[in-house]
Amino acid sequence: MKALAAFIMKGRMQAVMVASVFTVLALLITPLGIASSAVVALVTLRLGLEPWLDGSGIDGLRVHSAATWRDHNPRIPGKENPIAVDAPARSFLDHVRSYVWHPEKKKDKLSDPVLEGFNAGFAHETSLRSFFQKVVEDRSDAPTWDKLDDEGRARWLAHQLLRKNASPGRVHRFWREARAFFERVLNDVRAELRKQWPSEKPRRRRRFLKASTSTGRLRNRQTYAGHLPDRADAPFELVYLDELDGLVTICNLGRLFERMEQVEGLKGRTCELKDDEGNTVTLTINTVAEAPAPLASYDPVIVLEENPERFRFLVPLDAADRCLDLAVRRWHEEMGRVWADLPLSTGVVAFSRKTPYQAVIEAARNLEDRLDQGEPAWWRVELVERRDSVTALTLVRPDGCRELHVVPTSLPDGRDDVYYPNVAVEDGVLRERHDFLVPRRMGAARVYRWVAELRPGDAVLVRPGRFARTFLDSTARRFEPVQPMPLADWNTTRDVWRIVDTVAPGRAALHAAEAAIADARARWTDPDGRLDEQAWLAFVRAVLLDSLGPPPAALDTLLDAARRGLPGQSLLEESLAWHLHVLKLSTEEDT
To answer: How many CB atoms lie within 10 A of CB 442?
Structure first.
């Protein structure tokens, strides 16, 4: 309980396994004016940073481009540049290969103007083996000179001359950038949530109460909840703090009083409240004052864990989806050049505030484990379109769904950015000008291609980002497997709700449509679990038209969401279930 007390005073989580978070979450929820049975959301965000920390993720980053170097160096000392203009990638590899077979020296020093152009230290080496050890063998997974033949030495040497080095400083930079990314996400979240719950509003601020009781001494860190005699429709909740020798309000005073001056009317009032164990206490309020800092104002965000590999925070449930919106948007803006190799995984664990915190953390860990289980996959390029400084890629995922990714392919000064937006391709052929070969100790070598040079039909290797949402309506729910969905489908689920929220005549119509769609899925699924998708989609279309009456464009979006998703649950069904049964939002003004 000492850690819990520290959390209440400092506004941050320092205990991860306590019997209950009733007091902690009361400070979070009740100032929002949500009922005492309200739900909190633990939001977890994670970047796929591991390959970047062990060096393998840097394979797609280059410090040199053979094509760009050739374009800027048509001549080298004493002769024409031997690297072919039309096929610099193959020509550069061939040149390195020929030098490995027949190394040249000048005054006991290695001599080759091409290799010197890519690494100035080359001219100071006396043996190719020594140069190889310094340039290649610094990689933890790179083979040694003695374990390779000349072809392998040439491939590894050519690769290392082009790619960025996995130096400790660069790896630490990745760590810092990931941390800074989450800090910016947190700032976005706080700015967004404060629009809805501004702490400067007087009725959003807490009050410090001195009270007497006829039922014995109040207990430290204990929450007392109930109702004022004349306001049975709004919760009245307090927490007792020994260090203040008084009580702090942890409820939304705006639900209790229309005007702020009425808050001062609490002085002299008597009420009956219950503690967490159900014991009734009778309080008589003697004084009312502004709560001391840092408890005086309300912050709708509580950070539980913040580091480059994992970021967890608590927010009111109805703000969780907007938090994910902000994180996904910032990931697209800042990580667009390396989207295929640095995925973002997001998750939400919703739970009532009296849920044991151990169960919440266990549910979050299980959800994160499921999110981390996504394996890289080959996605097929369907369309490539370059405009100005970006390249738009339309790709087909292994499940047949399409995704659009807009990748920045120019530097701020207008030059082509051939250094970061590179992806592994399946064909393994040095076809384009900026291609480069990446050898591997295990498995065949891979070719990386600049995204602006991709063509329809190319297959690119993608580490997919994913998202998942779960609701702990009981602690046993944490043991049930969570099925993550592709991150690109997140915006689709949001679009689904925006549409139905706009066109639905009421909440009853949405519940009826959801029930009819679920019943039809059960009817058209055979004992082997195969769904007659054509018949089911036709029925879904009829239900949507009859219950909601969306316009044609909106109907197409909803039907596309019905086609996509997991086996047994489409994006349409997932979005409806989340809003109708977890968020319990209404398209009407009656909630």
So the answer is: 5
Angle made by CA atoms 406, 483, 351, in degrees to the nearest 5: 105
Confidence of residue 259 (pLDDT cuts 50, 70, 90): low
Let me know the angle formed at the C-alpha of 526 by 525 and 531, rounded to the nearest 5 degrees. 40
* Residues forming a β-bridge with 236: 226
Specify whether the CB–CB gap between 55 and 139 falls below 8 A. Answer: yes
Half-sphere exposure of 360 (CA within 13 A, CB side): 29
- Rounded Cα distance between 352 and 303, Å, is 18
User: Using CA atoms, how far apart are residues 220 and 243, in angstroms rounded to an integer?
Assistant: 9
The 8-class DSSP code of residue 416 comes to B
Cβ distance 253 to 203 under 8 Å?
Answer: yes
Q: What is the pLDDT of residues 267-302, one digit of tens each?
A: 888 888 888 888 889 888 888 887 877 776 677 888
Nearest to 436 by CA among 157, 193, 197, 188: 157
> Picking from 200-204, 258-262, 340-344, 500-504, which range would have the lowest pLDDT averaged per residue?
200-204
Q: Are the beta carbons of 383 and 393 closer than 8 angstroms?
A: yes
Q: What is the DSSP string of 338-365?
A: GTTTS-EEEEEEEEETTS-HHHHHHHHH
Question: Are the C-beta atoms of residues 470 and 367 closer than 8 Å to each other?
Answer: yes
Give the β-pairing of 207-213 and 280-290: antiparallel
Identify whether the C-beta of residue 80 lies closer than 8 Å to the C-beta of residue 113: no
Sheet holding 344-352, edge to edge: 302-307, 310-316, 39-47, 344-352, 466-472, 485-486
pLDDT of 86-101, one tens digit each?
999 999 999 999 999 9
Q: Which of 52, 335, 46, 64 is nearest to 168 (CA)?
A: 52
Per-residue H/E/C for 297-337: CCCCCEEEEEECCEEEEEEEHHHHHHHHHHHHHHHHHHCHH
Rounded CA separation 119/487 (Å): 40
DSSP at 375:
P
- pLDDT more than 70, % of the chain: 89
Q: Using CA atoms, how far apart are residues 268 and 214, in angstroms rounded to an integer?
A: 14
Q: Which residues contact 194 (CB under 8 A, 6 or more apart)?
A: 300
382 versus 20: which is more confidently predicted? 382
pLDDT at 189: 93
Whether 77 and 113 have beta carbons less than 8 Å apart is answered as: yes
Q: Check if the beta carbon of residue 351 is closer than 8 Å to that of residue 337.
A: no
Contact by Cβ (8 Å): 587, 504: yes
Q: What is the pTM of this model?
A: 0.81
Among 269, 274, 211, which Cα is nearest to 241's?
211
Whole-number pLDDT of residue 428: 87
pLDDT digits over 530-580, tens only?
A: 888 899 999 999 999 998 888 999 999 999 999 998 888 899 999 999 999
